[in-house]
Amino acid sequence: MNHKERMLTVLYRNGIPDKVPHGDPMVDPKVVNKLLGTKPIDEEGNFLIYWMTENFSDEFFKRQLRVRELLVFDYAHVFPREPIKTIKKTTEGHEIKRNVWGMEFLVTPTTTEVIKPPVPDIKSLAEYKFPNVEDFGFDNLERWVNESDLFVVCQLDTGYFQVANLIGVVQYMLGVFDCKEEIKLFTKRLVDLQIKIAKKAIKKGADCIWLANDYAYNTGTFLSPDLIWELDFQFVKKIVDEVHKLNKPVVFHACGNQNKVMDMIVDLGVDGLHAIQPAAQNDIVFYKKRYGDKLAFLGNIDINKLLPFGTCEEVDHQVKYLIEKVGYNGGFVLGTCNAIMKDTPPENALALHLAAEKYGHYPLEF
């Protein structure tokens, strides 16, 4: 099987692939350079901002492609590019930028912080003017499509996560009591735009739409499950349904504890669930037993302790365990619960994905 066939077999749970596919949304350039032995001069600054907003340079793209080939990844992850501009600098020399949503945020080499959401008053939600599809760039997406043979996923930040970015978390939480209908209408307008963006991404060659929606912390969700469905999931489901009409799968990314919303994630109709953080009390083995006929699972390798601080032998052991306990009958894409961060020793990144090749060929034998 090629990369696309392998990923589609898993996401649609359409039989068993030749091997367990594996990959990660992002690999920090510091890890890339250690793995490849390169010393680039064009990667200073905040990597996530670069990944989301800048037109990839030739050398940057080539390094990112080479490391995916080295680690035998099956998929590439990309954003619809959101051009930004610097509006001023702080006394410490950090930049304050504004993106196409009108959001102002402080950028340091390692962090981003929203300092001014574009909606100053929740009472003015109806007045907010959303960007147009034409405001987003698809050049990085097209590059992965045209210059690699990987399965290409395109991420949209949606639901609670994006709405809270646009109006502020405090305003959102207070608005749950006083402005529920306004939040619902605003979320519907957001989703209407994201359906258009998803359709354009698919037209440009995306193999899958990846919906990111962080609404939980390590022990539960920020809102009750009923409110999550009413204010968030019922609208996100519209994206899922429209993408499925175009015969493309949908992966749902959610950090935090998912225990109380797993049934609703199934009801969303998504094809796969990504992250499944072990540090947030998610039991992927239980999820597989209960939901494996309805969902594929992606990720789960711990990035809090195991990957940055564990040994290669410990990483190898955990990969073997997950392939045995979750990879049976297909339906599993091995990877971290988020991305390969800069604190990951290169030998552990290699151990993770080499172990996938060592243990992941079907029929599994343990």
Give an overview in words.
With 366 residues, the protein is α/β, with parallel strands linked by helices. It has one domain (3-82, 132-359): Alpha-Beta Barrel (TIM Barrel). Helices cover 43% and strands 16% of the residues. The chain is built from 14 helices and 13 strands. The protein has helices at 3-11, 29-36, 47-53, 58-70, 139-147, 159-167, 169-178, 180-203, 225-245, 262-268, 284-291, 306-309, 312-325, 346-359; strands at residues 75-78, 85-89, 95-98, 104-107, 112-116, 151-157, 208-212, 216-217, 220-221, 250-254, 272-275, 296-301, 332-336. The protein has a seven-stranded parallel beta sheet. A four-stranded antiparallel beta sheet has the order 2-3-4-5, with no helix packed on it. The protein has a two-stranded antiparallel sheet with strand order 8-9. A hairpin with a 4-residue loop joins strand 4 (104-107) and strand 5 (112-116). Helix 2 (29-36) packs across helix 14 and helix 6 (159-167) crosses helix 7. It is globular, with a radius of gyration of 20 Å. The model has no long low-confidence stretch (mean pLDDT 96).
